Amino acid sequence: xxxxxxxxxxxxxxxxxxxxxxxxxxxxxxxxxxxxxxxxxxxxxxxxxxxxxxxxxxxxxxxxxxxxxxxxxxxxxxxxxxxxxxxxxxxxxxxxxxxxxxxxxxxxxxxxxxxxxxxxxxxxxxxxxxxxxxxxxxxxxxxxxxxxxxxxxxxxxxxxxxxxxxxxxxxxxxxxxxxxxxxxxxxxxxxxxxxxxxxxxxxxxxxxxxxxxxxxxxxxxxxxxxxxxxxxxxxxxxxxxxxxxxxxxxxxxxxxxxxxxxxxxxxxxxxxxxxxxxxxxxxxxxxxxxxxxxxxxxxxxxxxxxxxxxxxxxxxxxxxxxxxxxxxxxxxxxxxxxxxxxxxxxxxxxxxxxxxxxxxxxxxxxxxxxxxxxxxxxxxxxxxxxxxxxxxxxxxxxxxxxxxxxxxxxxxxxxxxxxxxxxxxxxxxxxxxxxxxxxxxxxxxxxxxxxxxxxxxxxxxxxxxxxxxxxxxxxxxxxxxxxxxxxxxxxxxxxxxxxxxxxxxxxxxxxxxxxxxxxxxxxxxxxxxxxxxxxxxxxxxxxxxxxxxxxxxxxxxxxxxxxxxxxxxxxxxxxxxxxxxxxxxxxxxxxxxxxxxxxxxxxxxxxxxxxxxxxxxxxxxxxxxxxxxxxxxxxxxxxxxxxxxxxxxxxxxxxxxxxxxxxx
Amino acid sequence: xxxxxxxxxxxxxxxxxxxxxxxxxxxxxxxxxxxxxxxxxxxxxxxxxxxxxxxxxxxxxxxxxxxxxxxxxxxxxxxxxxxxxxxxxxxxxxxxxxxx
Amino acid sequence: xxxxxxxxxxxxxxxxxxxxxxxxxxxxxxxxxxxxxxxxxxxxxxxxxxxxxxxxxxxxxxxxxxxxxxxxxxxxxxxxxxxxxxxxxxxxxxxxxxxxxxxxxxxxxxxxxxxxxxxxxxxxxxxxxxxxxxxxxxxxxxxxxxxxxxxxxxxxxxxxxxxxxxxxxxxxxxxxxxxxxxxxxxxxxxxxxxxxxxxxxxxxxxxxxxxxxxxxxxxxxxxxxxxxxxxxxxxxxxxxxxxxxxxxxxxxxxxxxxxxxxxxxxxxxxxxxxxxxxxxxxxxxxxxxxxxxxxxxxxxxxxxxxxxxxxxxxxxxxxxxxxxxxxxxxxxxxxxxxxxxxxxxxxxxxxxxxxxxxxxxxxxxxxxxxxxxxxxxxxxxxxxxxxxxxxxxxxxxxxxxxxxxxxxxxxxxxxxxxxxxxxxxxxxxxxxxxxxxxxxxxxxxxxxxxxxxxxxxxxxxxxxxxxxxxxxxxxxxxxxxxxxxx
Amino acid sequence: xxxxxxxxxxxxxxxxxxxxxxxxxxxxxxxxxxxxxxxxxxxxxxxxxxxxxxxxxxxxxxxxxxxxxxxxxxxxxxxxxxxxxxxxxxxxxxxxxxxxxxxxxxxxxxxxxxxxxxxxxxxxxxxxxxxxxxxxxxxxxxxxxxxxxxxxxxxxxxxxxxxxxxxxxxxxxxxxxxxxxxxxxxxxxxxxxxxxxxxxxxxxxxxxxxxxxxxxxxxxxxxxxxxxxxxxxxxxxxxxxxxxxxxxxxxxxxxxxxxxxxxxxxxxxxxxxxxxxxxxxxxxxxxxxxxxxxxxxxxxxxxxxxxxxxxxxxxxxxxxxxxxxxxxxxxxxxxxxxxxxxxxxxxxxxxxxxxxxxxxxxxxxxxxxxxxxxxxxxxxxxxxxxxxxxxxxxxxxxxxxxxxxxxxxxxxxxxxxxxxxxxxxxxxxxxxxxxxxxxxxxxxxxxxxxxxxxxxxxxxxxxxxxxxxxxxxxxxxxxxxxxxxxxxxxxxxxxxxxxxxxxxxxxxxxxxxxxxxxx
Lengths: 664, 100, 486, 519
Hints:
heterotetramer, A: mainly alpha, two-stranded antiparallel sheet, C: two-stranded antiparallel sheet
């Protein structure tokens, strides 16, 4: 089965090529969408086969080398794939969620002029993501890494005639590139650092095997991992590089679901997990990751509180949830991080798709009424639960999951992260506190979203009101599947304490991923603090706290948006400055513009008009000018008068003869 | 006793006078005469040296110089006449069409 | 005891002056022919002078590797003289080829023109083959007097008059210095023979302390430097070059300049080799000065003819670099360079001649706007000549400069070479500007172009052939130049 | 046949040019087709070189031809001494490959004096090929200077508004550098002759073996380095490039970017570094600094350009900074990266200039502000432009990445680590300026009514781009085709350079060094 590993990325690539080259000719949406979906589905099937095979295989690491890519001296890089539990899980998520989103898109993108283009890009992004996940060395991963960046660019800029879409696409790519800079630096330093120890490699398996050659906790490892982490920050929208992700909502909603929630943005987390052996060696980096993750979780959540655009709320929520994953990585809870990555993929994809369904409906309504109101503004919604029951239910399930209500998937994953943040060797109660507050806000703004959208009075313009239909089957089926996963997915990773209640249900995920993480964790002493490890009471009380927080957040949202809907207005009135800051995303974009973008432009303009044109060309042209000036000056020695010429000669004679007679 | 050096110094003085004349006079004919003066001072040098060295080469040279000077005079005067025909002047300040 | 007659028989070796005698005879014959020719018809005189030059060339070449001394060692026809003589002959021939149509056009179809060129060439040959300062002086004067006439040949044209007069006065003036220098050297050594002077100078205990020698040597050299057009004795050159009839300018900048170099080389390298260090130093300064003056002033010229005059000064500067080097390569390089310069410069002037019309010759840059497209052949030819003047491969201008600077580098004059190449960089600008006008500008107005006269085209083609052949295969000719060295 | 293959390839275009002169000037179609035919044939003739496996196994010069050319007794010896190894192989191939494309690009853009243009194109091809295959410094110099002439005319006659300034600047700028190099060339020759080394003319392989004393090496190296730096062009002697590129006709820009600039980088690899290894060592930090500074500088300046072509021109400064950084790494990866990046730059930037040419032909303007929303009207164009843009940015999977990555790996492995880190920021800036430009040209609504009428690419234009696109991906995905054939030659070069450089260090404690070797 492992021999067919290459088929997994290959199928979407074929889809990309077919739709990209011939899509315009095919025209038929069913065929185009069908090909796109089929290809990713085939890929899903192969993934299932491989996953299954791996599950029952005692050998957990399999590599497949397709061809040599670059071969220069001691730099030998292959086009190779790596299947281990981590990548197996990831390909399942990518292809699985990917298939659903492809299916969803057939309905959602119906009637778009660039339908074929969309599917081609979507396939390409799946291809890239699979390359990223499956690559057996850092450079193949980088291909996927940049590939998803490219697809993100293309898909955000899908509505390229919109200025904001173009801007957002460019911003996404450029900010990602800043991350890529880190990735490349890390990669190069790693290659050199290992090379100087005699192992010239960037193969993940070999890196893991030889990581011990580097000094644990030393500068080199810290630099490498920090550089990689910068890359992860860019891709996974962490502070300080998170600004692109909210803007990325300019893309069509399935895109937001697929790459800006389920797959691409989790690449950073995946990359850290992939190189956990290396990261674990540097406590400083781990601490940095944890702090950055916690801060991002908290910070993005605050912004999420005040947004009115349905997708923006979800976008900040994504940033926040990614922060949780990084927090997990930082405290060494790799399994928990990946677990949250998975559950997040389910519920956030579902949420995005649900919001897409809502927008689709709203758009339909407005279109019908020939209105140009914003179909994404939650202030125009309300009471939609009756209009769109399936969307509502699936959305609600996912919201519950993300809020951390027990036995839904988000509860298990988030709770495990918080537990590690509190009780892990590398955890700290402050980290836990940040996470807990973020979780509180998450519950609050998510239910705020649900309440504003689905409950209360319908605030949509009267003319459009009655023309908001429930979406079709291609849209609702993926919603239902994802909602089911969001609800039940958590049982893959039930904590031991709880597992006992479910008939000694094991933590499947931890068990499955153990071959990947255990080694580094053991080696670097990453575990739950021993004095807390067996404190069942503590674990339960933490869990209780989590539940309490979630409940509090939900109640708060209920209180403010259902019970006394005037309250938010009062709140805004009493803290106008605070609200404005939050609403405007703490002015981070403006800050970046002022500090980096404008200064870069200023420097560029200066270098061009000030330096290039004035100084360099000034010297060049100045030299020419001086030479010419001397020439024109000398020219006037040539007066045309015989006497002057004779005089010139005489002076020449006198000087020369005088020099030789007197000077010697 | 008048020795070779006296002749040499005299000729040097004459040469200088000629040179000075070339530099200061404006009339083409006068300039030409100054040049002749220079050539003749050279002739004087040659003859003095020839005498001093007991060697005929210098005197032969003088003949050549004189001949050449005559030829030059012919050509020079012809050129001056041509110029005079066009400009009605042989003032060297009028040689001013070609410059810079 | 030998009789006077025997002495004369032994010492007068006509073979040594055969080429120049042929030229002089033809010159006198042609004077007669032109007197008896119908007014306004000069073509046959031109062709006869070409014949004369061809015969002279054959006579000259036949003496290769067979040095003939004559007139008691006053004249020698050695390889050096032969090489230079060939340069003069080529210069004269190319000039004559472009002259006829030009003279007709300008309204001076006068037969004496050609004999004068022949006499001038003969004078140049004497300069190259003279081993006695007397012979050299005679050659110089024959050459000069002919040139005074030629420069002022257009009697009715004030510019031509002015050019002739300026040349005449300054030439005569410099002759004074030269003669004074000869006289002083004669006083030092008791002879005007270069070999004897060399012997005396080398035997002197403190050469450099003898002011008479130094003054004599310097004055003598200055006489030649004047003819070469080296700064600061260059001032006549632009005016004269500009005012003289264009073919004469072409000839003047090639033939007589080469002749002056020939004499200068013989006098300096054979006669004054014991004060080599001082002379090299002097020439170092003069070469640099000449290059700078020529190139820099040329930058601001708008008249192509005058610009080429300054460029000619600059090229004299490059050639002087070869003397500074004072080695075999430098010497041979000068010989080679003079030949190359003859081709490229006369070629460029030939194009100028053909580009003009009566009276107001078309010599300004503006007048050349769009020239390249109107006259493709002339345009391409001009480009090649200009690239050669710039010193770009694969033209002879490059190889010429290459050898000259190689000589300097071999002798260790790195800075001189660098200044030299930087000067050629400066020169790029004004040469390129001509091309800019020829090709990159649209024509301002329509000129009544003269038609392409076959002889002129032949001249241009020959020059082109020379420029390209010497550029791509400089080996054989450079080998000859090497053999022609001392 | 094989004995004279290189000469045939080199002079075939010249032969074509001579025949071209007899084609009547009033038949532009025939002139263009003929030129295209000649360049295509040249490409076909050169193909066997690319398929010759000898390059994969041997780093020595192949296809050698040696004839005495100029021999003047004890004065000089210059030989017609040509050959190629894995380093020059791909540059030769790049030249023969780009020329037909450049020719084809003139179809609609050159309409005056077609004959002249075509003749110059062919002359230029011979000159460029000659420079790449020359193994004799004198011969190289001839071709090197010869290149200036056709390019000067191309810019000056067929160029844009400010063409005269650009042409003259290009010419004088480049010539100044090469004239100093000429002095250095002659000096080396005399050093070789007087030191009694067994030299055959100006043959570089013999010159490699000279132990030129280090004080002489320094100024010789500087002369060479300046000359090549101007051609590359490296900061701060780059200012001729934006002018020349902007004013040149499309074909001229393509050739200038794709091939002519490579002369400079190639010059470093073939001449400056191996001839003066010790001096190289001294000036390495400085030159590497210039290279890296050029990356940042070129990118920042490119970012603010209002003219697409000028933007691409400044991006060249940045790209070639990567090439130079790779070359200066003086190790296998770096050099290979530098070399492959030369080819890449030829392909990507050449393609970008073609693209600019396409829109210039349609709109007769290159100002970014005049465009916008072109993606609507020209989807095929948009796709191709996008691919090339990302190739220029260095997206993995395209050619640009392979070159940049290898160059950076090389720089990291050598002592240039910090330079490499700074250089890596170039990948961010590249994205900034390219994408910003792409967005402003292609995205958004069509604001300028003139853009409404734009037609998408014609078949000819697509045919023009397809070969370039193929190589964009070929080099990106399977660069080993190229790498494997350049590695042996680079290895050999490096062994030479390192041996000379080590020679400086070893004599300090020769005994210990010997012991080390023995053990």
